[in-house]
Amino acid sequence: MKYFVTVAGREVEVIVDGDQVTVDGRQVAAHLVHFPGTPLVQLSLEGRRYPLAVAGRDDDGWRLVDHGAVREVNAVDERTRHIRSLVGQVSGVAGGGVVKAPMPGMVVKLLVEVGQRVAAGDGLLLLEAMKMENELKAPGDGVVESISTTVGQAVEKGEVLVRLAALPSD
């Protein structure tokens, strides 16, 4: 299974296949041991051991204590990340960015126009795929910089549909 893990603002791709772990394309020796009844875990990476305390957990990750320093570790699997991109629930996105077609489909309605301000989660367009309408939403606050599609246009997966510019700083 593929995960996207963010630690200290840096995102890495982690693929776990049985006891094989690949981090950003490099296979690593990794092992995690939980000590039942305690908040303690031990992470072993490439033979180095990291004793950690789990200080909290939410939907996406954990708050870990490493030698007194609190580390926020967020992890989301590929499927959940994809679903969130469809509904505009992408965390940690600064303003601006691009919205791409998550699947092949047909644009059935544009909900914004160039120059319009949008907030994270605002609807940008409706994409019909497999007889279902999917509202694609803004991943972050911004201004619609360009729209690369029209109503009735068939689009391919990964095609850029809308570009957002970051909001000007006041």
Describe the structure.
The chain is mainly beta. The chain folds into 2 domains: 2-77, Glycoprotein, Type 4 Pilin (2-Layer Sandwich); 90-165, Beta Barrel (OB fold (Dihydrolipoamide Acetyltransferase, E2P)), CATH 2.40.50.100. Helix content is 6%, strand content 56%. It has one helix spanning 78-87; strands at 2-7, 10-17, 20-23, 26-28, 30-34, 40-45, 48-57, 61-66, 69-77, 97-100, 105-110, 117-118, 123-129, 132-137, 142-147, 154-155, 160-165. β7 (48-57) and β8 (61-66) form a beta hairpin. The model is unreliable at 89-94 (pLDDT under 50).
The radius of gyration is 20 Å
This entry's quaternary arrangement is single chain
Assign the CATH architecture of the largest domain: 2-Layer Sandwich
Helix count equals 1
In short:
This protein is mainly beta and 170 residues long. It has one helix at 78-87; strands at residues 2-7, 10-17, 20-23, 26-28, 30-34, 40-45, 48-57, 61-66, 69-77, 97-100, 105-110, 117-118, 123-129, 132-137, 142-147, 154-155, 160-165. The relative contact order is 0.14.
Primary descriptors:
170 residues, mainly beta, Glycoprotein, Type 4 Pilin, OB fold (Dihydrolipoamide Acetyltransferase, E2P), nine-stranded antiparallel β-sheet, four-stranded antiparallel β-sheet, 1 helix
